Amino acid sequence: MTGTLLYLRARRVPLALAAAVGGAAVIWALYLAFAKDRDATPLVVVLTVVLMVAALAPTLAGPDANLDRTASLRWAWRRGGHLLAGGAIVLAVLLATLHTGARFGPAALVVRDAAGLLGLTALCTSVVGAARSWFLPVGWTSIAAMYPQAGTWGAVATWQGQPTDSRAATVTAAAFALGGLVAYAIAGPARTDPAE
Is the model's pLDDT at 194 over the cut of 70? Predict the structure, then answer.
């Protein structure tokens, strides 16, 4: 086996991909079968994005997070590439639906929320570890998407559910995306005790 295949297998990437893509496919099929409108509601789009991100979150650390700090590998580039590949998968799956009978868009909403939520998940991975990194993004997004608030501070607090023309939401998502990418690439997953 090559190093890349071992890396993907150790991080359970095939299982996570199956869960993320399979979950999105189920939501897409249900929307296609039961919805009257071709365009998915923003709430459905945002919750599908967070579902995919949560399914990919455990892959951000291997079985032993402390091994991710060994000097024999250039982990910063590998971790950054891993996070960007996760984002590309979420975008590819959801943007492919724009050419089908049930469209998950607009594209700007998918890009903004995928980037911001992956960044937030990466930040959480650096603080609490990959196993619990999805708690904050899923909880926060569930509330923010259902109850978006008006005004600049409301848009910052509920950026996931804001319209695509909200500058405050876009800046907040970009800050999480960049901050998460840098923190995760440099620091990696949180250190864990061997007993965990």
Answer: no
Q: At what angle do helices 167-187 and 107-128 cross, to 10 degrees?
A: 40
139 Ramachandran zone, left/alpha/beta (phi>0; psi -120 to 50): alpha
pLDDT tens across 91-106, in order? 999 999 999 988 998 9
Class of residue 2 by CB neighbours under 10 A (exposed 0-12, middle 13-18, buried 19+): exposed
* Nearest partner of 49 among 106, 125, 11, 101, judged by Cα: 106
b/e per residue 14-47 (b: at least 16 CB within 10 A): eebbebbbebbeebbeebeeeeeeeebebebbbb
Which helix H or strand E contains 83, and what residues bound it? helix 75-96
∠ CA 112-117-121 to the nearest 5 degrees? 155
Q: Token pair of 88, please?
A: 């590309």
CA dist., res. 170 & res. 162, Å (int): 9
